[in-house]
Amino acid sequence: MPCLRFDLRRQFPLYLDDAASPRIVQRIERHLLDCGACRAHLVRLRSARTLLGELPVLGAPPFEQVMARTPEPAPRRPFIAPWLLRHLAADALIASVMFLLFTLFYTHAAVARNRPFDPSSFRAIGISDIAKTDDPHVVVSGVVSELDGNFSEGCRRFRLTDPRNPKAFVVCEILDGDPLHAPKAGERVRVWGVSRYDSNPDHEWFEIHPVLKVEVVR
Amino acid sequence: MRSAATDELRDLYDQYAAKILTLARYVLGSPSAAEDAVQSVFLKAYQHREGFRGQADARTWLWRIAVNHCQDELRRRKRVEEVPLDEVLGWANDDQSPELRHRVKQIDEIVARAILQLSPKLRTVVVLRYVEELSYQEIAAVLRCSVGTVSSRLARALSALEAILRPIVRS
Lengths: 218, 171
What we know:
The complex is a heterodimer. Chain A has helices spanning 6-9, 12-16, 22-34, 36-53, 63-68, 82-114, and strands at residues 123-124, 137-148, 155-162, 165-175, 188-198, 205-216. Chain A is of the alpha/beta class. Chain B has 8 helices and no strands. The A-B interface holds A 9-14, 17, 19, 41, 44-45, 47-49, 51-61, 63, 66-67, 69, 71-72, 74-75 and B 9-10, 13-14, 17-22, 25-26, 32, 34-36, 38-40, 42-43, 76-77, 88-89, 91, 104, 107-108, 111-112, 115, 126, 129-132, 135-136, 147-148, 151-152, 154-155, 158-159, 161-162, 165, 168-169.
């Protein structure tokens, strides 16, 4: 079992070299009586110490020979410390990857923005069933029952009612600045846009927001 | 260089050059680096002799210059050069038989290489204590640390060396 008396073990070299104080010697010897692990450790340290003690002290060359030598020039320190260079390289790599990702994302977003509007990819759904779809791109048909020309909320809004179920409706909103023309009340229209639920306590209805296309059905 | 100054430097050299060469050789691991170290240490000692006079023990002061030089050198080059130690360990006792001389020399080479596997701090303290035979108090003064720290570093160094040299110890 390993011994955890590191406080004593760090004094072992002093003990081996007869340089420890009598108090330390006493403490170490008392501990060694009961601790086989430390006795073995001490033997190992003594072996290593014996080998080291046999290493020769080398002979110096003559004074004139050494002082006549031109010392090797110290290698020039690089302008930027190697550790800093490593950090900069890592930073540059991260910045490059981020730039690449941003460029890809931006290009993809730009392509998506410029993609022509394709009405055929919108899902046709009845106004009464709008709550049943999670597809955001929908096309709904109905009768314009109410027209709101108030631009205070930044959009032109009209209500589209299901002719078969007058209680079912969606609110359609044309964004301000969009060149689309709002339909007239009573017209039967088909509306393409993004469906969502407006959870505002005053609203709590399904919306087509924004309206992307309005087509009057004859 | 004035002759009095040269004489002063030569006196210092005669007393300590071999010891400093030994320290540098075992700590740096290369004969040429060790000779450069001796030259640099004595030039530095000569240049700063005015600042030294009347202060600490000359021996401690010179050891400190040598230790600092070796630490700087090790910091400068990250890895120790692998140089055959027998270039310097040509010291065998003539009274020994050729086989025994060869065996002893082999062991010394292995031990010297094992020292190079220690960290610079442990390497320095091991050489100062067991090769240069400085006392614990002298080592503490050179390294500007406590005797307890010297002993603690020696304990770690001996333990690591014993693990490296275990096959030799057993044989």
